[in-house]
Amino acid sequence: MKDLPDSEERRANLKGLGCARKRVEDARFTQGKGNYVDDIKLPGMLFGDFVRSPYAHARVKSINAEAALALPGVIAVLTAKDLEPLGLHWMPTLAGDKQMVLADGKVLFQGQEVAFVVATDRYIAADAVELVEVDYEDLPVVVDPFKAQAPDAPVLREDLEGVTEGAHGPRRHHNHIFTWEQGDAAGANAAIDGSEVIAEETIYYHRTHPCPLETCGCVASMDKINGKLTLWGTFQAPHVVRTVASLLSGIDEHNIRVVSPDIGGGFGNKVGVYPGYVCSIVATIVTGKPVKWVEDRMENLMATAFARDYWMKGRIGATKDGRITGLHAHVTADHGAFDACADPTKFPAGFFHICTGSYDIPVAYCAVDGVYTNKAPGGVAYRCSFRVTEAAYFIERMIEILAIKLGMDAAELRRINFIRADQFPYTSALGWEYDSGDYHTAWDKALKAVDYEGLRREQAERVEAFRRGETRKLLGIGLTHFTEIVGAGPVKNCDILGMGMFDSCEIRIHPTGSAIARLGTISQGQGHATTFAQILASETGIPADKITIEEGDTDTAPYGLGTYGSRSTPVAGAATAMAGRKIRAKAQMIAAYLLEVHDDDLEWDVDRFAVKGAPERFKTMAEIAYAAYNQAIPGVEPGLEAVSYYDPPNMTYPFGAYICVMEIDVDTGEHEIRQFYALDDCGTRINPMIIEGQVHGGLTEALAIAMGQEIAYDDMGNVRTGTLMDFFLPTAWETPNYQTDWTETPSPHHPIGAKGVGESPNVGGVPAFSNAVHDAFRAFGLTQTHMPHDHWRIWRTARDLGLHG
Ligand code: PCD
Ligand SMILES: [Cu+]
């Protein structure tokens, strides 16, 4: 072939799979040209703001809005009484419970929405909020999920009094939501009881909050002339919002358009449906004007979806040489005032039953009790939608504690129990089918990269030096090998409120050989516009730079379940590849006609179909696209478009090996992360640079959670960490350097072999940081201390161990 670029050169030009392509969205983000919800300004737009409860539990005796309504610029003050005739004073949650939109007779957590003020100006709305007089009568508060289950505990959900059957089975107490169990209880107990070594511990994963930079908000606009409602909002699942809005309001779904514009971080905080959305919709219908509601930072931290708050009691057994014999887990899950998780319907504790982790455990059992308390609802997410972080933290702590009991090296204990590469696909004792993995290879690579043996020697010397009084600093080596489960999920067992969890992609190739693809997902910063174009580039031979990716507008995008649970790559990414393949199949028929050969005589070569054995006779995808629109081809419809709805056969199981090396100052409780090594295996890597960015971001959130972040309540149910003065958000100052690495074990069932990665660094990061703290004190007898490991708590641990002399 003459001077034509060869296949490799042409492949590089595509910027397809594996290319560290620069993020196309950053041109606008780095120049302040993003378009976020709060940037939307419509003529005549009104503004909403909430009156919120200062009490965690109180009866609402009366609401007097007179003074507020008298303030010039105030248009309306909505209360539950106004919503009741519309049937909107309560709304269904994604977990099969219901939740007050506005306080109906009582409030159940501090910050709960009591009244919605609508005014011509954001500041007038805020002033009017202060003028609304609410008469509360305070009630006894329960913030402890164990006390909530006492026979004489106050009844929180009076609306459920006498209801003995919940969305997930029988309720056995007035503050009990559900009990969900999986596995073989008798078998696990018998195996553990008969073991040579048994470790038992309660592991608490505290309550925290995703705290995205942009808070939640929406703009609702009802066009009364043509009956169309448009809703712009910070939605991680715009189609779900459309369907739910239609079901709640009775407006036909085709008359509702939901748009997620640019989103300033979601992290799971923007999956759920909040009262602000419902109130804005009602307000626009009532006033006929667009209504904007954007919460402030304190409202976001106090009232929108928190994460975790899982008390996990574990028992694990082993032989004296370290073979795990069985695992038993019992969780008390504090769901706050309403069960507003967003787990697939069948799994009220998400995928917590991945708690056997990376290990070949013969028999296991887990049970989760969901409980109501006087705290904000939510519980769904924070860089892990479905309780996988909780599960990974649980098993990775239990392994460390077992290693202490065994007097064994924790790296070795892991190695002995890993699921072996030849066991995949592997069915776990709790019923998951792990698609692929090679844990031993990843583990050895990680240990070697940090010189694990050397670190252990240094640690032993440090302990000696400490005992001799030569240093006040201890060295902790935090190990983690996690297995994630992402890509919900097969429609056969994953749905949310009955909506099956498939995803979609629709592609249009334009006549001149560029394209637009639309997906049912929505980027919140992950870089979908960059990476999905790369998948398509490799599938269709159209350079990624010539492909626009559009998400988030329900009027144009195909139906999809949105972005959370690292499902975009496993599900929508698969749909993208499949739609690309449909394009290619049609292109092949067109090329065959143009080249006057049989379809089967053609072969695909990067960006073209060439005649087998005669590579100089070819048609590029661009030429084919032109012909598709402009040439009459017998038996073939004009145009070049495809759509794919993809129902994955299984979830994907990314994994990783993380090692954190931490110095701890015994006298101040301060820590310093000397090294953090993170090896991730997410199957086929689409964009290594974006993956690295995802890992950096996720590790930083893990650092935040493990080392300081928490939503803390006092006994009265007051939120003690409701501002960024007290809620720890790491900056570049606290963030260490991360050393990233990878292995690549493709998913056998995903069309391009890719698994998700966005959640992994949080799932693996939290136990790595926490284990490092624990490991530093191992020589001095520490087995378990609860997160977050802020300076004060570390200092206290040192004191309790008698290290302050
Ligand atoms: N293999 C592979 C995988 C992946 N990738 C890439 O990476 C990313 C991610 O992915 P994924 O994993 O699939 O995921 P998605 O779905 O997309 O997303 C989600 C996630 O994501 C993460 N990340 C991030 N980033 C940012 N920037 N922002 C945000 O917000 C965020 N968020 C977070 C979270 S939280 Mo949840 O909601 O809790 O559940 S879940 C989550 C994208 O771009 C993709 O494409 C690649 O490249 N390759
Ligand atoms: Cu997850």
Automatic annotation (TrEMBL):
It is an enzyme of class 1 (oxidoreductase). GO terms for molecular function: anaerobic carbon-monoxide dehydrogenase activity; carbon-monoxide oxygenase activity; copper ion binding; iron ion binding; molybdenum ion binding. Its cofactor is Mo-molybdopterin cytosine dinucleotide; Cu(+). Residues 31-140 form the Aldehyde oxidase/xanthine dehydrogenase a/b hammerhead domain. InterPro entries: Ald_Oxase/Xan_DH_a/b, Ald_Oxase/Xan_DH_a/b_sf, Ald_Oxase/xanthine_DH-like, AldOxase/xan_DH_MoCoBD1, AldOxase/xan_DH_MoCoBD2, AldOxase/xan_DH_Mopterin-bd_sf, CO_Mo_DH_lsu. Its EC number is 1.2.5.3. It catalyses: CO + a quinone + H2O = a quinol + CO2. SMART domains: Ald_Xan_dh_C. Keywords: Copper, Metal-binding, Molybdenum, Oxidoreductase. It comes from the Bacteria. Dimer of heterotrimers. Each heterotrimer consists of a large, a medium and a small subunit. NCBIfam families: CO_dehy_Mo_lg. Catalyzes the oxidation of carbon monoxide to carbon dioxide. This is Carbon monoxide dehydrogenase large chain. It comes from Rhodovulum steppense.
